[in-house]
Design goal:
Oligomer: single chain
CATH class: Alpha Beta
CATH architecture: Alpha-Beta Complex
CATH superfamily: Creatinase/methionine aminopeptidase superfamily
Radius of gyration: 17 Å
Shape: globular
Distance between the termini: 35 Å
Structural class: alpha+beta
Number of helices: 4
Length: 251
C-alpha cells in the first residue's frame, strides 16, 4: 500500500532530510586518501546522534553499521572497515536518518582526490541521471517515467543501470511502497500522486549492469569489476512539482 503524506508529515521528513544532507556534507569534507571508511562511519553516527537523530541503517535487518559505503566496484550496502581510501578511488556513501519518527535517505558518490577520466564521467552521468529522474516525479505521471529518464541519461553516456536494486517509498519506515526502478518504459507502474514521498536512487555502472554479493551477505559489487556510482535523494511529489527533502540550505 502506498502511504500518502500530509504537508505536516512532509515537513517533518524535510527535517530528517536536512540532517542527512548535513551529515553527507561533513563526510564529503573528510573523504581523502588515507582515511578509513570505519572512521567516516564513526563520525557519521556521532554527528547524527548529537543532533537528535538515529542512524536508520544501523541494525536494519541486521546491518551492522550506521552508514553504507561503496568504494570503486561496490554498488551498495558495503560495510565500513579498516581499509584506507586511496588517491583516485571513488566512494559512495549512503546515509539514512530517523528523526522524530520520520526517515530521510540520501546517497552521494565522492571522488577521492583526483580521479581518472572514466571515474569523472561516471560520477557526472550518475548525478545527471538522478536529476533526470527527479524531474519526472510529477503528479499524474507514472513510476516508469522516472526509471525511463534515469536509464536514458545513463545509457546515452555509455553506462548501464543496476536492475536488481531499486528506489522505494519513504516515510516512517525506510522502505515503503512503491518500488522505483531505474529502468523500463515510461507510462508504466503506479500512478504518481501528490503526497507520495519516494527515494530515487540510480546505481550506474561503468560496465555491465549485473551484480554479485560478497560472502558477508551485504556488500554488492559489479560482476565484471567495473566502477559503480550511486546517487540518491528523498523526493516529495507535490502539485508544484518535485520537492527534494534531503537538502540543507546551510551547506
Amino acid at each position: 500500500m502506498i502511504i500518502l503524506k500530509s504537508r505536516r508529515e512532509i515537513e517533518r521528513m524535510r527535517q530528517a532530510g536536512r540532517l542527512v544532507a548535513r551529515v553527507l556534507a561533513e563526510l564529503g569534507r573528510r573523504v581523502r586518501p588515507g582515511v578509513t571508511t570505519a572512521e567516516l562511519a564513526s563520525f557519521a553516527e556521532e554527528f547524527i546522534v548529537r543532533h537528535g537523530g538515529y542512524p536508520t541503517f544501523k541494525g536494519y535487518r541486521g546491518f551492522p553499521a550506521p552508514i553504507c559505503v561503496a568504494p570503486n566496484d561496490v554498488v551498495i550496502h558495503g560495510i565500513p572497515g579498516p581499509e584506507r581510501l586511496r588517491e583516485g578511488d571513488i566512494l559512495g556513501i549512503d546515509v539514512g536518518v530517523t528523526l522524530d519518527g520520520y526517515v530521510g535517505d540520501r546517497a552521494h558518490t565522492f571522488p577521492v582526490g583526483e580521479v581518472g577520466e572514466l571515474g569523472r564521467r561516471l560520477l557526472e552521468a550518475a548525478e545527471a541521471s538522478l536529476a533526470a529522474g527527479i524531474a519526472k516525479a510529477l503528479p499524474g505521471g507514472r513510476v516508469g517515467d522516472i526509471g525511463a529518464a534515469v536509464e536514458r541519461v545513463a545509457r546515452e553516456a555509455g553506462f548501464s543501470v543496476v536492475r536488481e536494486y531499486v528506489g522505494h517509498g519513504v516515510g516512517r519506515a525506510m522502505h515503503e511502497e512503491p518500488s522505483v526502478p531505474n529502468f523500463g518504459p515510461p507510462g508504466r507502474g503506479p500512478l504518481l500522486k501528490e503526497g507520495m514521498v519516494i527515494a530515487i536512487e540510480p546505481m550506474v555502472n561503468a560496465g555491465a549492469p549485473e551484480t554479485v554479493t560478497d560472502p558477508d551477505g551485504w556488500t554488492v559489487r559489479t560482476k565484471d569489476g567495473s566502477l559503480s556510482a550511486h546517487f540518491e535523494h528523498t523526493v516529495a511529489i507535490t502539485a508544484d512539482g518535485p520537492e527534494i527533502l534531503t537538502l540543507d540550505e546551510a551547506v
